Every structure is written in structure tokens, then in C-alpha cells.
Amino acid sequence: MSENPKPNRSAGGKARAEKLTPEQRAEIATNAASARWNKDIPLAPYVGEIVIVNKSIPCAVLEDGKTRIINSAGFLYALNRPWRGKYQRTDTPNFLAASNLKSYINSEIESVLGLIEYRTKNGGVLRGYDARLLRMVCNVYVRALGDGVLKLENQINVAKAAGVVLNALADVGVAALIDEATGFQRDRAKRALAEILEQFIAKELRSWTRTFPVEFYEQIFRLHGWWFDPQSLKRPGVIGHYTNDFIYSRLAPGVLDELRAKNPVVDGRRKHKLFQWLSGEVGDPRLRTHLDGIVRLMRGSSSWEEFKAFANRFFPRLSKTDLGFDVEDYSKEEMEAAKAVLRPPTDPR
Prior knowledge:
Elements: H1 9-19, H2 22-34, E1 46-52, E2 55-61, E3 68-71, H3 72-78, H4 107-110, E4 116-119, E5 125-130, H5 132-147, H6 153-168, H7 174-182, H8 185-200, H9 214-224, H10 237-246, H11 255-262, E6 265-266, E7 269-270, H12 283-299, H13 304-314, H14 320-323, H15 332-341
Antiparallel strand pairs: 1-2, 2-3, 3-5, 4-5, 6-7
Helix pairs in contact: 5-6, 9-12
């Protein structure tokens, strides 16, 4: 006899099946059958359950990373309505079809009323509603109750449940609950970063054109009290740190890291300018606009510390907790070295 017998999963499955109503078993059977030929139905790689007022509500996030779904049965469960598996083919969901509710259905609600079919990783096909609809439907019932138009007991019960749901969602939005329950929050930042970099970073190296105005460097020197020679190309290393900090790291999250990856250090220096890897459609125009704003702040500042305070206020860099990116800092030793290099000559003429 085996020392480690496998658990009897079939027994557990039978036990769960016995708890299902006939309507639920029929719905599950229909989903399983349709899964064989419905590969065009969007996949929901993230599924889970949110808990609202001690009710576990099945939910999902579709592969587009934007559409959050509340399962149709769970949607009704949240509103204290029975699920009979017969709500998927109506133009207006059963829970909003009553004539005394029609005046409360606006264009915003209509835009998310449609039932959405989605596939799970195991091939099953489920149906649900855009998660945004839950709060909207709750508002409809609460308003209708306040206006005194609800007369039927079942509608009044739904309105009471809707008020409880709205209170539960007052501090935490349903989207945040779903992202946490399905595990999507772990990938959300990665998706956001990928979309940003797709816009900002060029596919191929762009030709060099003057992008950083001379005044950008002149203002840095002025604010530090350094002597500035506009004809000289000599720049201390700390200027590069300033450029990364106040320019590239504040354009968008991850842009500086991606530019460095595109343009690595070879034999002690980068072969091209970082801005040559910015896209012409988004990256370069955004850089020029940002540069203009930074230079304006420099003009209006009387000291380097004042400028830094302005920059942090009007052009803040993302903190490490937002999307996980560090900003390269510069040491006191580098600052002192820069000052030594740039002390004004005895006769600046």
C-alpha cells in the first residue's frame, strides 16, 4: 500500500456538486460545453473573490488589464437578489428592468450594462458585468428608495442591500478590491510601465539635434555661484547627475532606466546622447516642454536650494513606492570636485 495516497479529489468534487442548485449545474455545464469552440472570448488570467459585507463575490480582470468583472451570479448576490441563471440574454438586466427604475438609467449606466463573457484559464466560460456597474446600480436603488418610488418588497430589500454595499465601498473602490483579490495588482505597475515606455522610447536611434539649451547649463552655474564660459564644453560630472535627476527621471517612470539600457556605457562613456533614444511623437516633445519648465523655475530662483524646492513641488519625481524606481543621487564629494573645477579664473576675460 502506498505510504502517501493521493487525496480523493473526485469525492470532494461530488460533494461540491451536490450543493449546487439545478440551475447552477445547468449553467456550469453550458459554460464547459461552449468553452470548446469559444476561443475568441476574452481570457481572464486573474480571478478571485472580493468580500463585501461578509459576502464572497467572484470577480476577474480580463487580459487587457483594464476591464474588471463581477460575476453575474455574484452581482445579484451582492444585491440580495436570487440567481436563476436566466439573466444573460436580456438587453437590460433583470435587476434594472422594472418600469419604476427607467428614469434613473442614464447614458453612463447604459454604457456598461452589457453582459460580458470571459474565459478562465481552465477553459470555462463565465458571464459577468463591468465592475463599475455595481456602484451605479446601488446608487439607482438608493435614490429610488429616497424618492419613494419603490413599492414592492423585493425592490426595497435590494435598495437596503445597495445602501450597505455603498457604505462598504466608501473608503475602498471596487476596482482596488478586485485587483487585490485576483492578484492583478502585482502586474498592474508592470503593465503601466510598459505602456509608458512604448510611448516615450524610440525603436531606432534618432539623429542628433541640439536639444538642451545653453541657458539650462548657464542657470545651473548661476545658482551655484560658479563662473560660466558659454564657449567652453567643459562640464563637471555632477551636471550629468543634475540632468538625470531634474530632467530624465521626472519625464515619466522608468524612462531614465530604459534610456540607459538603450545607450549603455562603453569604455567609460555613453556612445550617444540619451535624448536621441526618445520617440519623436511623445518623448522628444515632452522633453522639450519639461526642459522649458525647468529653465523657467531656475530663472525665478535665487539659490540652488530654492530651485530644488520649486522643482520638487512642480515637477516631482516618482517615489520608490510608486513604481519602484530609484533616482541616482550625487555625493558631497562630487559636488566639491565640481566646485573646484569651476572656480572662476583670476581674470575671467
